[in-house]
Protein backbone atom coordinates (compact mmCIF):
# COMPACT_ATOMS: atom_id res chain seq x y z
CA UNK A 1 0.00 0.00 0.00
CA UNK A 2 1.17 3.48 -0.82
CA UNK A 3 0.54 5.20 2.44
CA UNK A 4 2.24 7.46 4.97
CA UNK A 5 -0.47 8.09 7.51
CA UNK A 6 0.21 7.16 11.14
CA UNK A 7 -3.11 5.35 11.13
CA UNK A 8 -2.40 3.13 8.17
CA UNK A 9 -3.44 -0.50 8.36
CA UNK A 10 0.04 -1.90 8.86
CA UNK A 11 1.75 -0.41 11.90
CA UNK A 12 4.53 -2.93 11.33
CA UNK A 13 5.76 -0.75 8.47
CA UNK A 14 6.10 2.24 10.79
CA UNK A 15 9.07 0.58 12.46
CA UNK A 16 10.62 -0.51 9.15
CA UNK A 17 9.73 -4.14 9.74
CA UNK A 18 8.73 -6.30 6.81
CA UNK A 19 5.57 -8.34 7.10
CA UNK A 20 6.51 -11.94 7.84
CA UNK A 21 6.75 -14.25 4.87
CA UNK A 22 4.40 -17.09 5.59
CA UNK A 23 5.35 -20.31 3.88
CA UNK A 24 3.33 -22.79 5.91
CA UNK A 25 -0.06 -23.76 4.53
CA UNK A 26 -2.94 -23.28 6.96
CA UNK A 27 -6.10 -25.37 6.94
CA UNK A 28 -9.08 -23.78 5.15
CA UNK A 29 -12.03 -23.06 7.41
CA UNK A 30 -15.41 -22.44 5.82
CA UNK A 31 -17.43 -19.25 6.25
CA UNK A 32 -19.87 -21.34 8.26
CA UNK A 33 -17.25 -21.38 10.99
CA UNK A 34 -18.07 -17.73 11.65
CA UNK A 35 -21.79 -18.13 11.45
CA UNK A 36 -22.37 -21.20 13.57
CA UNK A 37 -22.11 -24.00 10.99
CA UNK A 38 -20.45 -27.31 11.57
CA UNK A 39 -17.26 -27.21 13.58
CA UNK A 40 -14.35 -26.89 11.12
CA UNK A 41 -11.69 -29.56 10.96
CA UNK A 42 -8.24 -28.31 11.87
CA UNK A 43 -4.85 -29.93 11.81
CA UNK A 44 -1.51 -29.35 13.46
CA UNK A 45 0.56 -27.47 10.87
CA UNK A 46 3.59 -25.20 11.20
CA UNK A 47 2.67 -21.75 12.50
CA UNK A 48 3.32 -18.54 10.57
CA UNK A 49 5.77 -16.08 12.06
CA UNK A 50 3.52 -13.47 13.66
CA UNK A 51 4.83 -10.64 15.76
CA UNK A 52 3.91 -10.89 19.42
CA UNK A 53 6.82 -9.32 21.28
CA UNK A 54 6.58 -7.27 24.45
CA UNK A 55 4.88 -4.01 23.59
CA UNK A 56 5.80 -0.50 24.70
CA UNK A 57 4.02 0.77 27.79
CA UNK A 58 0.80 2.57 26.94
CA UNK A 59 -1.59 4.51 29.13
CA UNK A 60 -4.93 2.71 29.33
CA UNK A 61 -8.10 4.29 28.00
CA UNK A 62 -9.92 6.45 30.58
CA UNK A 63 -12.76 3.95 30.80
CA UNK A 64 -11.53 0.51 29.70
CA UNK A 65 -14.17 -1.94 28.56
CA UNK A 66 -14.88 -4.93 30.74
CA UNK A 67 -14.94 -8.35 29.10
CA UNK A 68 -18.73 -8.39 29.42
CA UNK A 69 -19.04 -4.99 27.74
CA UNK A 70 -16.67 -6.06 24.98
CA UNK A 71 -18.54 -9.30 24.27
CA UNK A 72 -21.83 -7.37 24.14
CA UNK A 73 -20.42 -5.33 21.24
CA UNK A 74 -19.19 -8.35 19.31
CA UNK A 75 -20.99 -10.93 17.17
CA UNK A 76 -22.32 -13.92 19.14
CA UNK A 77 -19.81 -16.25 17.47
CA UNK A 78 -16.96 -14.41 19.23
CA UNK A 79 -17.99 -16.08 22.49
CA UNK A 80 -17.13 -19.57 21.20
CA UNK A 81 -14.00 -21.04 22.76
CA UNK A 82 -13.12 -22.82 19.50
CA UNK A 83 -11.87 -21.67 16.10
CA UNK A 84 -15.20 -19.97 15.36
CA UNK A 85 -14.59 -17.52 18.18
CA UNK A 86 -11.04 -16.79 17.04
CA UNK A 87 -12.19 -16.09 13.48
CA UNK A 88 -15.10 -13.88 14.55
CA UNK A 89 -12.85 -11.90 16.89
CA UNK A 90 -10.16 -11.39 14.25
CA UNK A 91 -12.79 -10.19 11.79
CA UNK A 92 -14.25 -7.82 14.39
CA UNK A 93 -10.79 -6.42 15.21
CA UNK A 94 -10.22 -5.80 11.51
CA UNK A 95 -13.50 -3.90 11.14
CA UNK A 96 -12.85 -1.80 14.26
CA UNK A 97 -9.32 -0.79 13.31
CA UNK A 98 -10.30 2.19 11.14
CA UNK A 99 -13.06 3.18 13.56
CA UNK A 100 -10.42 3.87 16.20
CA UNK A 101 -8.69 6.40 13.95
CA UNK A 102 -11.96 7.92 12.77
CA UNK A 103 -13.38 8.51 16.24
CA UNK A 104 -10.34 8.61 18.51
CA UNK A 105 -11.97 5.98 20.72
CA UNK A 106 -9.40 3.22 21.26
CA UNK A 107 -11.28 1.21 23.89
CA UNK A 108 -12.39 -1.64 21.62
CA UNK A 109 -8.98 -2.20 20.06
CA UNK A 110 -7.33 -1.89 23.48
CA UNK A 111 -9.70 -4.46 24.96
CA UNK A 112 -9.06 -6.88 22.08
CA UNK A 113 -5.28 -6.53 22.34
CA UNK A 114 -3.06 -8.81 24.36
CA UNK A 115 -0.30 -7.05 26.30
CA UNK A 116 2.31 -8.81 24.12
CA UNK A 117 0.88 -7.59 20.79
CA UNK A 118 3.37 -5.12 19.32
CA UNK A 119 1.20 -4.54 16.25
CA UNK A 120 -1.66 -3.52 18.55
CA UNK A 121 0.52 -1.33 20.74
CA UNK A 122 1.88 0.59 17.77
CA UNK A 123 -1.62 1.15 16.38
CA UNK A 124 -2.86 2.36 19.78
CA UNK A 125 0.13 4.69 20.08
CA UNK A 126 -0.55 6.18 16.64
CA UNK A 127 -4.21 6.71 17.48
CA UNK A 128 -3.23 8.41 20.75
CA UNK A 129 -0.82 10.69 18.87
CA UNK A 130 -3.57 11.78 16.52
CA UNK A 131 -5.95 12.48 19.39
CA UNK A 132 -3.27 14.54 21.13
CA UNK A 133 -2.79 16.56 17.95
CA UNK A 134 -6.52 17.13 17.61
CA UNK A 135 -6.62 15.16 14.37
CA UNK A 136 -8.66 12.24 13.11
CA UNK A 137 -9.01 10.20 9.95
CA UNK A 138 -11.65 9.74 7.31
CA UNK A 139 -11.91 6.52 5.34
CA UNK A 140 -9.37 3.77 5.78
CA UNK A 141 -12.01 1.11 6.39
CA UNK A 142 -10.53 -2.40 6.32
CA UNK A 143 -12.83 -5.10 5.00
CA UNK A 144 -11.81 -8.69 5.70
CA UNK A 145 -12.91 -11.38 3.24
CA UNK A 146 -13.83 -14.20 5.61
CA UNK A 147 -15.10 -16.32 2.72
CA UNK A 148 -11.40 -17.10 2.24
CA UNK A 149 -10.47 -17.43 5.91
CA UNK A 150 -7.88 -20.00 6.99
CA UNK A 151 -7.47 -21.07 10.59
CA UNK A 152 -5.23 -23.35 12.61
CA UNK A 153 -6.56 -24.14 16.08
CA UNK A 154 -4.16 -24.50 19.00
CA UNK A 155 -0.88 -25.25 17.31
CA UNK A 156 2.15 -26.48 19.24
CA UNK A 157 2.71 -23.06 20.84
CA UNK A 158 -0.84 -22.97 22.23
CA UNK A 159 -2.10 -20.17 19.98
CA UNK A 160 -4.68 -20.17 17.21
CA UNK A 161 -3.74 -18.68 13.84
CA UNK A 162 -6.25 -16.95 11.58
CA UNK A 163 -5.67 -15.22 8.25
CA UNK A 164 -7.81 -13.80 5.46
CA UNK A 165 -7.56 -11.32 2.57
CA UNK A 166 -8.47 -7.69 3.15
CA UNK A 167 -9.21 -4.57 1.14
CA UNK A 168 -8.68 -1.10 2.57
CA UNK A 169 -10.23 2.18 1.47
CA UNK A 170 -8.19 5.32 0.90
CA UNK A 171 -7.45 7.45 3.97
CA UNK A 172 -7.55 11.19 4.63
CA UNK A 173 -6.06 12.84 7.72
CA UNK A 174 -8.11 15.76 9.03
CA UNK A 175 -6.12 18.17 11.17
CA UNK A 176 -7.41 20.05 14.17
CA UNK A 177 -7.55 23.30 12.17
CA UNK A 178 -9.88 21.71 9.64
CA UNK A 179 -7.33 21.22 6.88
CA UNK A 180 -6.95 17.76 5.37
CA UNK A 181 -4.55 15.73 3.32
CA UNK A 182 -4.73 12.35 1.60
CA UNK A 183 -2.51 9.96 3.49
CA UNK A 184 -3.18 6.53 2.06
CA UNK A 185 -4.31 5.07 -1.25
CA UNK A 186 -5.74 1.95 0.33
CA UNK A 187 -5.00 -1.41 -1.18
CA UNK A 188 -5.32 -5.15 -0.72
CA UNK A 189 -3.38 -7.89 0.99
CA UNK A 190 -3.67 -10.54 3.66
CA UNK A 191 -3.71 -10.14 7.43
CA UNK A 192 -2.32 -12.84 9.72
CA UNK A 193 -3.43 -13.05 13.36
CA UNK A 194 -2.07 -14.96 16.34
CA UNK A 195 -5.01 -15.34 18.72
CA UNK A 196 -5.09 -16.36 22.36
CA UNK A 197 -8.10 -17.21 24.51
CA UNK A 198 -8.06 -15.32 27.82
CA UNK A 199 -10.99 -16.35 29.95
CA UNK A 200 -14.07 -15.80 27.80
CA UNK A 201 -12.40 -13.45 25.30
CA UNK A 202 -10.16 -14.13 22.31
CA UNK A 203 -7.43 -11.50 22.05
CA UNK A 204 -4.89 -10.57 19.40
CA UNK A 205 -1.46 -11.71 20.60
CA UNK A 206 0.27 -10.74 17.37
CA UNK A 207 -0.46 -9.73 13.80
CA UNK A 208 1.29 -9.08 10.50
CA UNK A 209 0.07 -7.56 7.24
CA UNK A 210 1.22 -8.62 3.81
CA UNK A 211 0.36 -5.88 1.32
CA UNK A 212 -0.32 -6.74 -2.29
CA UNK A 213 -1.12 -3.28 -3.65
What's the level 1 CATH class? Answer: Alpha Beta
Largest sheet: 5 strands, antiparallel
Number of strands: 8
C-alpha Rg (nearest Å): 16 Å
Order of helices and strands: HHHHHEEEEEEEE
Strand composition percent: 15-25%
Shape-level CATH architecture = Roll
Q: Helix/strand-derived class?
A: alpha+beta
Span of the ends, CA to CA: 5 Å
Stretches where pLDDT is under 50 for at least 5 consecutive residues are 1-8, 10-49, 51-61
What's the structural domain tally?
A: 1
Total count of helical runs of at least 4 residues? 5
Q: Multimeric state of these chains?
A: single chain
Mean pLDDT score? 78
Q: What share of the residues lie within helices?
A: 10-25%
CATH topology type: Nuclear Transport Factor 2, Chain: A
Q: Give the overall shape, derived from the CA principal axes.
A: globular
Model description:
This protein is of the alpha+beta class and 213 residues long. It contains five helices and eight strands. It has helices at residues 32-35, 67-73, 83-103, 107-112, 118-132, and strands spanning 136-139, 142-144, 150-152, 160-168, 171-174, 180-184, 187-198, 201-211. Strand 3 (150-152) and strand 4 form a beta hairpin. The longest helix is centred in the middle third of the chain and has 21 residues, at 83-103. The relative contact order is 0.25. Mean pLDDT is 78; it is low at 1-8, 10-49 and 51-61.
